[in-house]
């Protein structure tokens, strides 16, 4: 894909955007894209009180690629869902690009997600009756773009993920890795502020997983996309810039992979 084509769907070429940012809650540098302060999440089930997250503090700078790891039940998916505006904290504050999403109503959150978050799941969630092109166009149906512009932007996104020649194929005509790349194209076609990935390689063989992870890494390093990825796979985490470990809802360790 030519840089000019990428810019037409809003993808700005900003390599090494993390090089001068220290990603810690105590940083006095640029305002973080995501600022999490004292966030806890408690579920009440009858008389049972289950604390899933416990006073988490975290900054995620623009251009970060953060991997969230931890055992099942550690709170990593809950934290990811909060960052994506799918869940709200019981206490604490959560800001994205200066917006306090923890204060938004459900209607405001839905609008915010549509404009700011791209989702990549373990299972691709492609509509089986639609071609790859039409699947990628779906988020653009919520915009005021013309049909011609939607088709062009979807074609550009498919080209970016290396599937321009599969635009007319339906999901059952694509491999698992190709389907996940279509899902990534769908996630980036509207140029979201954040890309959130929940076990994006969990249903793929090692070769396909590496292709998908290499693509995500490229989107981060060449196009400056900010990403948060939940994974159980240490090999997958190596593609991130930072790895954050949660245990029993507590942030216990951070590791910098490096630029």
TrEMBL record:
Keywords for this protein: ATP-binding, Nucleotide-binding, Transport
Descriptive protein name: Putative ABC transport system ATP-binding protein
Species the sequence originates in: Thiocapsa roseopersicina
UniProt KW Translocase keyword: no
Pfam family, one: ABC_tran
ABC transporter domain span: 34-257
Keyword Nucleotide-binding: yes
Family of the protein in this entry: Belongs to the ABC transporter superfamily. Macrolide exporter (TC 3.A.1.122) family.
PANTHER family on file: ABC TRANSPORTER ATP-BINDING PROTEIN (PTHR24220:SF452), IMPORT ATP-BINDING PROTEIN (PTHR24220)
SUPFAM superfamilies: P-loop containing nucleoside triphosphate hydrolases
Taxonomic path: Bacteria, Pseudomonadati, Pseudomonadota, Gammaproteobacteria, Chromatiales
Alphabetized GO MF terms: ATP binding; ATP hydrolysis activity; transmembrane transporter activity
Disordered: annotated segments: 1-32
């Amino acid at each position: 894909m030519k840089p000019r084509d990428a810019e037409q769907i809003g993808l700005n070429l900003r390599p090494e955007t993390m090089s001068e940012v220290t990603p810690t809650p105590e940083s006095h540098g640029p305002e973080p894209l995501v600022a999490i302060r004292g966030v806890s999440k408690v579920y009440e089930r009858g008389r049972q009180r289950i604390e899933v997250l416990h006073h988490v503090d975290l900054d995620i700078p623009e251009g970060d690629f953060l991997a969230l790891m931890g055992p099942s039940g550690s709170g990593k998916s809950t934290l990811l869902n909060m960052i994506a505006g799918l869940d709200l904290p019981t206490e604490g504050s959560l800001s994205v690009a200066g917006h306090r999403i923890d204060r938004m109503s459900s209607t405001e959150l839905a609008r915010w997600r549509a404009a700011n978050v791209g989702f990549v799941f373990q299972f691709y969630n492609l509509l089986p009756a639609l071609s790859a092109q039409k699947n990628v166009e779906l988020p653009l149906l919520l915009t005021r773009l013309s049909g011609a512009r939607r088709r062009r932007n979807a074609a550009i996104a498919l080209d970016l993920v290396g599937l321009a020649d599969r635009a007319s194929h339906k999901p059952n005509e694509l491999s698992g890795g190709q389907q996940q790349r279509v899902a990534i194209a769908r996630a980036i076609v509207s140029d979201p502020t954040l890309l959130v990935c929940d076990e994006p390689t969990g249903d793929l063989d090692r070769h396909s997983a590496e292709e998908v992870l290499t693509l995500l890494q490229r989107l981060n390093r060449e196009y400056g996309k900010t990403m948060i990825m939940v994974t159980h796979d240490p090999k997958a985490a190596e593609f991130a810039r930072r790895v954050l470990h949660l245990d029993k809802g507590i942030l216990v360790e951070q590791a910098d992979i490096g630029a």
